[in-house]
Amino acid sequence: MDLELYAPDDKFIMKLDSDEALLGSYPIDDGCRIHVIDRSGARMGEYEDVSRVEKYEMSASDYEKRPDSVRSFLKRSKMGKHNQEEMVKKEAEQEQKLAEEKAQAEAISVGARCEVRVLGQPSKRGTVMYVGLAEFKPGYWIGIKYDEPLGKNDGSVNGKQYFQCQPKYGAFVKPQYITVGDFPEESYGLDDEM
Prior knowledge:
Layout: E1 2-6, E2 12-15, E3 33-37, H1 60-65, H2 70-77, H3 84-106, E4 113-116, E5 124-133, E6 140-146, E7 156-157, E8 160-161, E9 170-173, E10 178-180
Antiparallel strand pairs: 1-2, 1-3, 4-5, 4-10, 5-6, 6-9, 7-8
GO cellular component, one term: microtubule plus-end
Pfam family, one: Ubiquitin_2
Family: Belongs to the TBCB family.
């Protein structure tokens, strides 16, 4: 690599070419720029593919024995999952949230008309097609068949079919964003174009 020193006004000052000299021994001032020229012949992006980089791997038991690891620091400091009180508190909060979600979900019945209101998105109307737990993410989910193609799926996620609908008409939403009521299907003029 070649190193070149430039003044704040981008005027070339000198090459930094002495391998023995410390950086502080050069006339570097505030605002100066050190330009690095790679002469190694490495192509751009050559080292971006990390699958080609040889890796060092340590067994879990060897890592557990090290006194200078992040894990040992977390254990000594009782942080993260190593803080038993905090973990019990988080678990209780998650159970509370799941219980609240379950109560909200139980108040929503399959076949009901609903409106979905998510902060920062326009409200969408549809029909409830599924209520319950799902494999794709934890917690209770409401499967909605929208009146128009504003969804993300056809009622299936990761190959599991939860309900049937046309592609892009299905979505899964958390119960707190659902309002069940007399929401008549709106005519969007989509059938007129066919």
